[in-house]
């Protein structure tokens, strides 16, 4: 099946690229987006405090906030308070805003659900003529004669032992004149491309983000409240080298989005990021936000922390790397969505230019690809000249400062480089270690005693995992592959030398050792990609399972207040109610049609 | 032979269902084709592939997103889709089996005249299992529910029907007939990407439920929707005597 442009990944970068391509080319280029989630948005997980600058560029005439709310019910809440705390075990100290780097000022930004924003963007893309196919996983990249031709989707209908079942369908080849990879951090096809085309210049370093969505009573809710913390429990001293912190955002109407990001270059193999997150919630500065609320959703995903140094070469013959797949997250701003969208726009512009100047009839007309896919170097040039590069270059040394000298000096250095040198310092602190190699042997540390979950504020992993909606079709091959040359590593290296860190860092409980043997519960996998990064010797290769499986992230709008309808009525509902009210005027109650707002009366049925 | 298949859009089987505002929460919850309807579609498509049927028409009742469910049915191999559009809830809260059966009846008698009607045995949201039998009653035609095997036989069908006591073999001698499909009938195929793309071109007709002239008011009133009470923790007992004592005196399951 040939297309002019194939986009792998339906996140903000991929969707922005598809939209921009159609805005530039109209029907003259065929554009296809595939995504391994069952729907667009089901694999999207992010804090998210959103900088709308690049989205506004993509849609200068739309009020995206109003349209997203209409389409999905998700309300983009303007940030009202920006709080930065340093926590100790029992206390907290606020860093006054004037001492914070300007990048952390969230004025003009919004607390959003990125998953719902993507659903809306997908609707816009489809209206422009983009073909979107969720539920299809890109399993292999088609490379012929050193040029990327497209991808092949995952075979489906294989049994656990790899044998075809009656429902077997082989993967389908999707070929294009240009393939844009927008898989997010540590994308599986992207990793393969890094090796094939030698794109990496320095290693990437990642953080594992674990998130919960809470629904809280109205009295506790502070719309637009944004809080980040450092310190307890991840960092117990100012020289602690464990990178990470927390986020806590209040989104209308009654949601609190919380989570913790742990830098995967941590040394202590006994560190359990999920448990650190659970105990962080018990801190007196955090607990009041969540108390009496209900946890309704859970998920995890890695994010890039390496910044400027870790960005690979972005182009190769036939393909380009977009968004977090390339690594455009700004770790000081703690934002990557705006750069992902911008990279999508730049890639679309470069691709449109390249494909329309080839003098070749497009696939949208001929239904065949007649020339080899071009190497669109213009995308790399656009990136070099873009605000993505300048904002990442400015903060290029900050993450490494934390990694080398600890959290206290790291903060001081970040202040220094964001206020004073603004990135103009002539030196570069390069990052050169794989996260997997940063883990130190277990003998230098002792197991951490984490408190037991109370079931109301803190939860055990498996209970929380249900809230991600994760499922995979049972009878399929395990998608987490132990690399053939590293078969011995689990039992001979990971367990004895490092006390099996994978049994602690996986936020889905996939890896455990039973009777000293590795057990992989692959159906729990939430596709966070942490294992491929942090396994000792990187002994796991993460591959895609059958499309449509994995987590099902979506925002639940339920409210518990009695006047729920008023709390939550979006303008869409208000319009509907107004229309219904007009219609009901003058009718007796018998004549009113069954409408969705019907009251359900419950009686106490006694003595039957 | 023409087959009419019913496909229902329900809350996805893997979703943890919540109660909100006195009813099941549907907003922003993942919905997909009822698993038993998938089995019915698969059976219809297999009958078409073995040349017993010539045309398979899929029918769905619900909001505008039902067109997605119909597209999946078309991608699996149905030829055409009919969408009866209504914003009434189809999970028993508003639209109930009798009204649904009447809508099917009208489409069958006044429009399509199929030889076979295949339905899932029940919707996983309402769990009623009533549309099939009610429809057969309205049409005054043979019905076999909980089909585990369907074979063409003479001018009718030989159907194996699952019951609690075992399997019955029933010969449907005259058509049209209604068959509702159970789990063991088949394993539905994956909708492949090429078929999904082709399905976009297959026709789907939309009819507004209000224009059908059928009384859709529910016959039963839902009084209360609650989540099941949380399971109480179990306890450990020290020995068998303590276990027997508890079973006798607390659980009262032993004389």
From TrEMBL, chain A:
ETF-QO/FixX C-terminal domain span: 455-554
Subcellular location, principal: mitochondrion
The keyword Transferase is assigned to this record: no
E.C. numbers: 1.5.5.1
Subcellular location: Mitochondrion inner membrane
Class of this enzyme: oxidoreductase
Domain ETF-QO/FixC ubiquinone-binding, chain residue ranges per copy: 206-303
Keyword list, A-Z: Electron transport, FAD, Flavoprotein, Iron, Iron-sulfur, Membrane, Metal-binding, Mitochondrion, Mitochondrion inner membrane, Oxidoreductase, Transit peptide, Transport, Ubiquinone
Annotated FAD-dependent oxidoreductase 2 FAD-binding domain residues: 4-70
GO molecular function terms attached to this record: 4 iron, 4 sulfur cluster binding; electron-transferring-flavoprotein dehydrogenase activity; metal ion binding
Cellular component, GO annotation: mitochondrial inner membrane
Substrates-to-products reaction catalysed: a ubiquinone + reduced [electron-transfer flavoprotein] = a ubiquinol + oxidized [electron-transfer flavoprotein] + H(+)
Cofactor: [4Fe-4S] cluster; FAD
Region feature (Disordered): 547-593
UniProt feature, compositional bias: Basic and acidic residues: 569-593
Domain of life: Eukaryota
Co-factor: note: Binds 1 [4Fe-4S] cluster.
Entry function: Accepts electrons from ETF and reduces ubiquinone.
Family, as annotated: Belongs to the ETF-QO/FixC family.
Protein name per its UniProtKB record: Electron transfer flavoprotein-ubiquinone oxidoreductase
Lineage per the UniProt record: Eukaryota, Sar, Stramenopiles, Ochrophyta, Bacillariophyta
TrEMBL record, chain B:
Gene Ontology cellular-component terms listed: mitochondrial matrix
Residue spans crossing the bilayer: none
Gene Ontology MF terms: electron transfer activity
A GO BP entry: fatty acid beta-oxidation using acyl-CoA dehydrogenase
InterPro entries: ETF_a/b_N (IPR014730), ETF_b (IPR012255), ETF_beta_N (IPR033948), Rossmann-like_a/b/a_fold (IPR014729)
Pfam families cross-referenced by the UniProt entry: ETF
Domain of life per record: Eukaryota
Major site of localization recorded for this protein: mitochondrion
Domain Electron transfer flavoprotein alpha/beta-subunit N-terminal positions: 21-216
Protein localization: Mitochondrion matrix
Keyword RNA-binding: no
Keywords: Electron transport, Mitochondrion, Transport
Family: Belongs to the ETF beta-subunit/FixA family.
Subunit text: Heterodimer of an alpha and a beta subunit.
Function description: The electron transfer flavoprotein serves as a specific electron acceptor for several dehydrogenases, including five acyl-CoA dehydrogenases, glutaryl-CoA and sarcosine dehydrogenase. It transfers the electrons to the main mitochondrial respiratory chain via ETF-ubiquinone oxidoreductase (ETF dehydrogenase).
Stated name of the protein: Electron transfer flavoprotein subunit beta
Organism: Fistulifera solaris
Source species taxonomy: Eukaryota, Sar, Stramenopiles, Ochrophyta, Bacillariophyta
